[in-house]
Automatic annotation (TrEMBL):
The name this protein goes by in its record: 2,5-didehydrogluconate reductase
Family, as annotated: Belongs to the aldo/keto reductase family.
Organismal lineage: Bacteria, Bacillati, Actinomycetota, Actinomycetes, Micrococcales
Signal peptide start and end residues: none
Record bears the keyword Oxidoreductase: yes
Organism of derivation: Brevibacterium casei S18
Pfam families reported in the protein's UniProt record: Aldo_ket_red
Length: 274
């Protein structure tokens, strides 16, 4: 099996383009599930304080015996901890739960516009990087409505982690990201399993390649340059989602998947998450 490509972020750090996400992974099962993912070959794990499973992630990392510098670990600041001083305490708590001296990437989870603290919080983030608590800093769910205020600080995020799958491609946000060399991390990359992608053109493309609809979507993301970390509790699907480096979509196939865009979010609008 070919290895996972790495991308270089705008701060010079590298990130494995394909990882494993643990949203809605039961804290009691997290250690087992992340252990499976590491055994399958994943080295990039995406968690968040609000997922409540950082401790299980940490135990799996420790028990794996995998060298720290081979791992890429992301966690996120929850909305109720925004603010300069509070976000530092929250990061220190996350590191304690993960059992790590540093994370590779720390993100503001949502803009939380009703609180109006995102800019103040963001201005504190470079100090966490400078002190070695995180290697890179970024944001999540800052679409074209919320990213400009972040960019005005002059501190450019390494990534923006946003809902993105074939029927919801964040068309209005993408130019801002490209202009600033901010990498896209696509969350809900498979539409959270709630879109019937198998009965679209993706199903036909999958049959042509002898792959599953999920593998075709993962390939589409990789070829578009997105970072992604599909989630599954099943080891068989973890392995399937990792087995995507032995085929390639044609330009025509890529374009036919692009054409599925219909503005159809499957999850929350950032305006409404506070
Ligand atoms: P996803 O698109 O990865 O979908 C996961 C679901 O797809 C699974 O529960 C399963 O039902 C299905 N699935 C997975 N592999 C499959 C396969 N091979 N065949 C058929 N079905 C399959 O959705 P997600 O978990 O929400 O997103 C991935 C990660 O993104 C999360 O685990 C989390 O780390 C991150 N995330 C971040 C935010 C944010 O606000 N920043 C929000 C949601 C998710």
């Amino acid at each position: 099996m070919m290895s996972v490509p790495t991308l270089t972020l705008n701060d010079g750090k590298t990130i494995p383009q394909l990882g494993f996400g643990v949203f809605k992974v039961d804290p009691a099962e997290t250690e087992r599930i992340v252990t499976d993912a590491l055994e399958v070959g994943y080295r990039h794990i995406d968690t968040a304080a609000v997922y409540g499973n950082e401790e299980g992630v940490g135990r799996a990392l420790k028990n794996s015996g995998i060298a720290r510098d081979e791992l890429f670990i992301t966690t996120k600041l929850w909305n109720d901890r925004q603010g300069a001083a509070e976000s530092r305490r929250a990061l220190e708590e996350s590191l304690g739960k993960l059992g790590l001296d540093y994370v590779d990437l720390y993100l503001i989870h949502w803009p939380a516009p009703a609180q109006n603290k995102a800019v103040e919080t963001w201005e504190a983030f470079p100090s966490y990087r400078d002190e070695g608590l995180t290697r890179s800093i970024g944001v999540s769910n800052f679409d074209y409505r919320y990213l400009p205020a972040i960019l005005e600080t002059g501190i450019i995020p390494a990534v923006n982690q946003i809902e993105l799958h074939p029927q919801f491609q964040e068309i209005e946000t993408r130019p801002l990201l490209a202009e600033n060399d901010i990498k896209i991390e696509a969350w809900g990359p498979l539409g959270q399993g709630s879109v019937d992608y198998a009965s679209t053109v993706i199903g036909e493309i999958a049959a042509a390649h002898g792959k599953s609809w999920a593998q075709v979507i993962i390939r589409w993301h990789l070829q578009r340059g997105h970072i992604l970390f599909p989630k599954s509790n099943s080891r068989e699907r973890m392995a399937q989602n990792f087995d995507v480096f032995d085929f390639e979509l044609t330009d025509v196939q890529m374009a036919s998947i692009d054409a599925l865009e219909n503005g159809g979010r499957v999850s929350a609008d950032p305006a409404e998450v506070n």
